Amino acid sequence: MLKTFSITDIGKKRKINQDYVYTSEMPLGNLPNVFIVADGMGGHNAGDYASKYTVETIVSEIEQSFEKNPARILEKAIQEANSHIRQKASEDESLSGMGTTVVAATCLGKYLKVANVGDSRLYIINEEIKQITRDHSLVEEMVRMGGIDRETAKHHPDKNIITRAVGAKNTVEIDFFDVELKEGDVILMCTDGLTNMLEDEEIRMILNGQRDIVEKAQELVKAANDNGGKDNISVILIEPFAEERNKA
Question: Is the pLDDT of residue 75 over 80?
Fold first, then answer.
């Protein structure tokens, strides 16, 4: 039995919230559940429009999909959202150049299927914290090429430059990940407004320090704001085996 909670917060510095989250514990189309986090970018209202419109399009496409394969369902939905965003941006000058990150997931029993574009993240937390997604960012590519180390990357001036986004090009390259879940795992999906303000280990300690899923999420947002809250903060928490966890 899944237990989930989501929260989005404007943070301390931004005028508008360009993040958008969606959760459905119930079946959507041929998927048993769906969770999506998006972090929009673009001037004025373009960023919040991009994230909301992208997520709404993905949800609508999943609902109508005849595909059976979860990866294909997510891939086609995200590609379709990309086309829609491109179309909208070409029709309205105020939306020109908009785009958004997307991380989407579905729990299939003890397996998790993840799709990712951009630098929003999905983690699995238990005794340890493990980042499943890989950031599509300039700084992450520099780390991979051996140009800079992880520690330098955290404070690099270009860390907000992403190399892939929904809406950036005519087609979007999506990464897919399969995770085998085990008892006690907590799934965290979040925007960089959380991960830029907190170290992974701080996140793990907060999640392991609170009993209730709602408290866990609220505590993450509070900690990110206490550390500066420089961006919008969005969190989805999923406990895939909540009943087994409660029995323990």
Answer: yes
pLDDT at 248 over 50: no
Q: What is the pLDDT of residues 226-241, one digit of tens each?
A: 999 999 999 999 999 9
Residue by residue, DSSP assigns 205-243 as HHHHH-SSHHHHHHHHHHHHHHTT--S-EEEEEEETTHH
CA distances (Å), origin 26, targets 124, 128, 154, 214: 21, 29, 37, 19
Please give the structure tokens belonging to residue 132: 């499943």
**Cβ burial, residue 43 (10 Å; 0-12/13-18/19+):** exposed
Q: DSSP strand E in the chain: where?
A: 3-9, 19-24, 34-41, 99-108, 111-117, 121-125, 129-131, 175-180, 186-190, 233-239
Q: Percentage of the chain surpassing pLDDT 70?
A: 97
87 φ, ψ (degrees, to nearest 5) = -60, -50
Measured on CA atoms in the order 44, 47, 48, 52, is the torsion positive or negative? positive
Q: Nearest 5°: CA angle at 81, between 76 and 82?
A: 95
Q: Tell me the CB-side half-sphere exposure of residue 248, using CA atoms within 13 A.
A: 8
Complete domains list, the chain, with CATH: 3-247 (3.60.40.10)
